[in-house]
Amino acid sequence: MAGQGDLKLLGMLESPFVIRVRMALHLKGVSYEYIEQDLSNKGELLLKNNPVHKKVPVLIHNGKPICESLAIVQYVDEVWAATSPSILPANPHERALARFWAAYVDDKFFPAWLGILKAETGEERDKKMSETLPVVEQLETALAQCSNGKAFFSGASVGYLDLAVGCNLLWLDAMRKMFGVVVIDAARTPVLAAWADRFRESDVGKEVLPDADIAVEYAKKIQVYRPASK
């Protein structure tokens, strides 16, 4: 594993945003110290290094913090630019397109599936699911637009937009186990569903993406998962 100075990652195992950063570090082969955080009892290290949002992930490189997962992924790609593979596309237009869709994932896709997870009744969950499907269909469009017919959003191999979307698969798999809902459905979005299967089987998917049971247990612990009302 490559290394450059003192590198720490403050995170939480179940966070898709932390998973995104861990995937980027894995792609670059960078060694780091991982420090798990309890967000219900935030410690001094987290509050000192992310006083604005007080959230994870936070990457601390030689004592200097970098916050927000997409910014961290770009930082990792730039600092370890000499280490293959490149995470962001080299072409300026493709890079801008990847950033646009990554922002869409965080602004639209993440809140959409989170609404399904937080629904308190089956009826509310169905409503949230119907609102989520058009968002997912846009990701199928993005995949066709960015991949040029290849296996991943970034082309022949996993890259920036793959990490942006793929880090959410943990919770999509967990919701399938908890509620039987299929957010990325092969019948509605077959290209995206095939991508999701490939991503899970990729090196970074196998090595970094946690088992869905971890998310299921966390959801139960914080009482997000509630049985439908009678």
UniProtKB/TrEMBL annotation:
GO molecular function, one term: glutathione transferase activity
Catalytic activity from the UniProt record: RX + glutathione = an S-substituted glutathione + a halide anion + H(+)
SUPFAM superfamilies: GST C-terminal domain-like, Thioredoxin-like
EC number: 2.5.1.18
GO CC, one annotated term: cytosol
Segment forming the signal sequence: none
Domain GST N-terminal stretches: 5-84
Pfam families attached to this UniProt entry: GST_C_2 (PF13410), GST_N (PF02798)
Keyword tags: Cytoplasm, Transferase
Principal location: cytoplasm
Entry's Gene Ontology BP terms: glutathione metabolic process
Domain GST C-terminal: start-end pairs: 91-230
Role noted for this protein: Is involved in the conjugation of reduced glutathione to a wide number of exogenous and endogenous hydrophobic electrophiles.
Family per record: Belongs to the GST superfamily. Tau family.
Name recorded for this polypeptide: Glutathione S-transferase
Annotated organism of origin: Lolium multiflorum
